[in-house]
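In the previous lecture we treated proteins in isolation. Real proteins rarely work alone, and many bind small molecules. This record shows how such a complex is specified: first the sequence, then the SMILES for S-adenosylmethionine.
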Amino acid sequence: MESNQFKDFWKSQTTPLHAHKQELWYDRYAQEIKNFLPEQGVVVDAGCGSGEILERLSRYYRKMIGVDYSESMLTQAKQKKYENQVVFFNDSIINIKTFCAYPVDAIYCNGVVQYLSHEEFAHFIADSLSLLSNKGKLIILQIPNVNCRTLFRLGFYQHEKAISFNRILKGMISLTLRDLINFLKTGSTKMEDGIGNWYSIEEVRELVRPLGASVEVHGSVFVNYSYRFHVVISKN
Ligand SMILES: C[S@@+](CC[C@H](N)C(=O)[O-])C[C@H]1O[C@@H](n2cnc3c(N)ncnc32)[C@H](O)[C@@H]1O
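The predicted 3D structure, ligand included, written as tokens:
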């Protein structure tokens, strides 16, 4: 899917469609993000969706900024209860420099960059870094790891189901046929998986290298998301 197709998809959604949807799980997702954030300051939630994580983190920061290009998601986010000041922008995160003023102490982006093209992703990293205070951090979470893509398509990360050699073999044949039919019909070699764009850790490092920042890589603590990784990018 191209970026516009993702935008069309999200414009009518009202929940972030995480693997788990219960309040307890939102607490856990928020806690995982909090572990990477500074103790205080101004923090941006880039692609805040319906605000479940923003709501949980707002008690720690004097000001938070939530941005999302989906009006329906943002309408939900605005109805949540916040303990401190939260300002919203209905815009794309790639325009972050047009609505955020320097300096901010952290920018986090959870489960969003798969909807950006590689160029947009590079642009988002560069502009976010330019908005950060000296000790600021850009934390990008839940990036689909391209090395895990085939296994994901084979159902490997649905850990509840046992995966046998036969299942892998049947899966490989059916995926190959599906990709071939898609190629014959559309001429496209792009594999559809419902996730969006996948990245390698090396690709993310390559995007950051010219900007002179440092990258720390972490795995997701959630087993359903073990095909994803996080990066913490710090200005040096
Ligand atoms: C899977 S949801 C995640 C929401 C939230 N970050 C969370 O973790 O609960 C993805 C969100 O990213 C938003 N999104 C995707 N691409 C975006 C972009 N370029 N600019 C702003 N929002 C975007 C969608 O509208 C959607 O609300």
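Summary for your notes: Residues 148-186 form one domain. The CA atoms of residues 47 and 112 lie 6 Å apart.
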